[in-house]
Amino acid sequence: MVELTIGQEVEMEYGGKAKVLKVIGSGGQGTVYQVQYNGMKWALKWYDVEKMRNPKAFRANIKNNISDGPPSKQFLWPKYLTKENEDGTFGYLMELKPDSFDSFVDILNTYKLSVDPLTGRSTKKPVRFTSLYAMTTAVINIVNAFRQLHRAGKSYQDLNDGGFFINVDTGAVLVCDCDNIAPDGNNFGIGGKPGYMAPEVVRGVAKPNVQTDKYSLAVVLFKLLFRGDPMEGEKVVKDVCLTESSELKHYGQNAVFVYDPEDTSNRPVRGIHDNVIKFWRIYPDYIKDSFIKSFTVGITEPNKRIIENEWQKLFLRLRSEIISCSCGRTNFSSMFERPDIRTFKCPKCGSMFGSLKFSNRQFRAPLYLGCVFYECEIDPDSEDFQTIAGELVENKLKPGVLGFKNTSSMTWKAKMPDGNYYDIEPGKGFPVWQGLEIDFGKVQATLQ
User: Fold this and answer.
1) Fewest CB within 10 angstroms: 209, 352, 361, 386, which?
2) DSSP secondary-structure letter at 109?
């Protein structure tokens, strides 16, 4: 591989030169450098073309991706190509990752190494989601990014734990390593990372495509939520050293989900897979059932794998069912007691929470101080899962009195205790009371 040196200038395809400032990291395809180009700092991925099956076709695909543009703002998309050197080497520029984002790998490890520039000493810095809300938002953002990608007729092909940066405070997500993305059906020799590849790719009977992306996406989601490998249980642990043949067996020919309801041979092992055991008890059944489908039926029947739109609906529901109690307990409503169909009870302090029934869904949304709902929850035609449409707040003049605030751009109608409906304009609020009815337009909600 032809490596670049600090201070070296690399010619860009359409003029100008990028000056190499430092090394950011390296991987199987090449090295990523920080460079300066046109007065701005960028990341330059420089390829080891000797490891490529067809470098010219790979470069042409990146050029097409640059022309097409990213599917959404969540992608750290290729921006500019370098000139192709006589020896065939080349690279491309992309935006740098903001400092507020951490790698998916560090999040799974729960820490990252911080090196003191003066002493060179490494210390572990914790990397954890600051809230359950941020984590579920990250899951929704990952799913949405791949929904947009597949809508554009392209597949990622090498989806793994190195493909994401996440803001652990907000759940914002950036998808990186976008150079392998190609029109569905095209492949440039990329297979994937063991443990993330679909079984048919592991067996060598299929090449990466949209359907294999869906399997890999399910693995990513499982690892983020349950902090473990969906196929690593008792059977895998018995193989002390995972050779290529054993990986073929456990992830390709005879893959068994750790919570397969029909096959208990690969259950998580206590003391090794404690995270999976712990979190499997916490998540509601509809989430667990979806992963069971993904890793049982989805193993052998790619066309029956869960699509991104289904995942998005499931996780939007999961986020709406988070309850944050004043005693400090925050968890999904499935972990709270249910005195009746309308009420949730904190098992720690006994606090009671009412719930709102929306006309466009079967489940009820728990109500607590600070809870919010989004545009997509009050408008069935909206796909906006990021803009808050309403929130439950405390009356500034009457402490302890709760009310809804309209933070959307639409005027709602609300039934007041006098039995009449009143217009609730953007920025205005109304009290919470038993018998409340809200008309958002296409969706209605009741507190009864």
Assistant:
1) 352
2) H
